[in-house]
Every structure is written in C-alpha cells, then in structure tokens.
Amino acid sequence: MSKIFIDACLGKETPYTPVWMMRQAGRYLPEYMEVRAKAGDFLSLCHNPEMACEVTLQPIDIVGVDAAILFSDILVIPDEMGMDLSFVKGEGPKFSDPLESQEDLDRLIGGEEAASKLTYVYDTIKLIKERLSDDKALIGFCGAPWTLATYMIEGQGTKTYNICKKMMYSNPELLHNILAKVTEVVKLYMEKQIEAGIDVVQIFDSWASAIEPSKYDEFSWKYMVEIADYLKSKFPDTPIIMFPKGVASFIEQDLVYGNFDVFGVDWSTPMALAKEKLGDKYVLQGNMEPTRLYSKEATKECVESLAELMKDGRHIFNLGHGILPDVPVENAKYFVKLCQEASKRD
Questions:
Q1: Biggest distance spanned by C-alpha atoms of the chain
Q2: CA 190 – CA 183 distance, rounded (Å)
Q3: Which ranges of the chain have pLDDT less than 70?
C-alpha cells in the first residue's frame, strides 16, 4: 500500500509532505510524445491499456513524484454515453452532436450500461498497479458533471459558456437533467476505478469559475458532493480530492461542504484564504502557479512560501492546475526536489 501519500490525504502524520503534479503524463515529456506518436491519435492512446500504463508511469521514473495520475481523459464518459467525440489538431475535443433538448439527452445511454463500456480504463489501472512501486500511489480521476456538461452542450471548449449558461437561466430543468444523468455514470465509473485498484479519487471541476458563486452549489458543487457521498458510503477509506478551479469567492463565503478528504487549491485562490476557511476540515493541496516552472527562481520562491505558510497545517505539494507542455523537464524535477527538501526541513 502507498502509505505515505494516502495517509497525507487522510490528514495523518507522515514523515514528509508528498508531492505530485497534475497532468503528469503530458507533452512536456519527450518520452510521452514518442508513445503518443506510436498510438496515432489521442483517443487511441486512451483506449490502449499498455500505452496508457506506460505514460502514466513515466513521471514517476523521470520526475520522481510520490503519486501517479491515471492517463485518460475526462471526456471518455460522454463518448461512451453515445456522443460522437473527436480530437481536432490545434482545436481540441469536439462533439459533432451537442445536446440541445431532452430528446438529445434521452438518446444517450447512462448508468451501469455506460460505465461498463469503459473497460479499457479499468484494464489500464490493473496494469499500472502491477507495475507501480508499493510506495507510490495511483490517483484516478473524473471530470465534475458541470465540466463534462459544458463540452456536451457547447460541443467543444469555450471561453464564454454562453450556450450552457443560456440553458442554466432559460431551461434549468434540462440542465439539471443532464447533470443528473452524467452524475450517475460518474458514480459508477469511479466505483469501478476503485475496484480496479486506484488508491485516491480526484474530481476535477476545471470550469467551475464559469458559474457565478450564488449558483455554483446548485449547478456543480452539490453534484460533486453527491459523487463523494456515494463513494464514501462504499469505500470509506479511499481518499477523495475535490478540485474546483477558480472558486475563491465560493470559499470566502464559507460555502464549501461535503464528505471528502482533500481540497485542491488552484493557483488563483490564495492559499492563506483556503487555510483560514478550510484548513481545519480538509487537507489542502496545491497551489503553485504552473507557469512559475519556467523559472527556477520563481519556483523556489513559491515552494518556500508555501512550506512556511503550511508548516503548521496539512498540505500536499502540487501545482495549482496542469503542467504546461513547453516546461523544461529539468525544471519539473527541480520543483519536486525543492518540495521534498522543504518538507524534510519541517
């Protein structure tokens, strides 16, 4: 069992503070790009357990982090629900058939039927667990229902979320129906990930900041809490990380609640605020601005500041969102080494 990382997530005393980086298997590693080229395209890589296992393990061996994050994509869920997903070079993910009506939603499969189609993910997890060192943890993940719904409704990534938000205010019943159907699939998907062998669950709400604070609980957070409650009822010892990006005002208003273990603090949210409002209830994770990795000096400044701020709190070193593709590998290694040294001093 990966004791140190899991104990840290559960708020227990550990000999040092663990460190990992979101989006570990990514374009910043030349080794990843070699495997990606062999796979042919992104979805093929997600669907190939052997290759997905390989790129999941690369950051452990190359960068030296304490936990691996499963290589997959949040959009495999709507893809297996029956939506037509493709990844367009230079443009990102696209659905050719975005949801506009209840009839569109009704044509999608849900529940156990959809979750059972994601066998390639569960097979990847089993392969990783066979090869991952016992002192390293494996983090499984999913997108929050709101983040998934934005792609399903907009048909692609968006900067304005105007189609989703038009539905939020003009047809909230339909949006809730979409969120509820997605939530049921996510619950079962994460249950099957845990059964396959993951040690820690992380729920990403990458587009949380698109919702005004007074509406965030209704259209996102309560669905994330529902997923966490479901998983905790079945797997009480499996740590759950919640990561909503860009919700400082939601935190400030004391609106965070739920049965989970770790709150991921994004780079735009002051860690001091998160510590004040949430530090007594949850372990905190984060929150270095990822672009600091371009500068060793900026990286060191942030790591030392976080270490000082959190020396009397419960904290896991991490970035405040995903690592960027042109970050030098040497700088990523430097970040991990600094975190490890900082935690040993304490």
A1: 59
A2: 11
A3: 1-2, 23-25, 344-346
What pLDDT does residue 66 have? 93
Helix axis angle, 172-196 to 162-170, nearest 10°: 120
Burial class of residue 66 (count of CB atoms within 10 Å of its CB; 0-12, 13-18, 19+): buried
Return the sign of the alpha-carbon dihedral for residues 335, 341, 344, 346.
negative
Q: pTM for the full model?
A: 0.95
Please provide the distance, in angstroms rounded to a whole number, between the alpha carbons at the two ends of the chain: 25
For the beta carbon of residue 338, count every other beta carbon within 10 angstroms: 19
What per-residue confidence (pLDDT) applies to 92? 86
Catalytic residues: 23, 27, 36, 73, 151
Return contacts of 304-313, CB within 8 angstroms, 24+ apart.
Answer: 304/338, 304/342, 306/271, 306/342, 307/17, 307/339, 307/342, 307/343, 307/345, 307/346, 309/271, 309/272, 309/275, 310/17, 310/271, 310/275, 310/284, 311/346, 313/275, 313/279, 313/284
Estimate to the nearest angstrom the gap between the alpha carbon of 191 and the chain centroid: 16
- The pLDDT of residue 23: 66
Beta pairing class for 240-244 and 200-205: parallel
What is the C-alpha separation between 84 and 98, in angstroms, rounded?
9
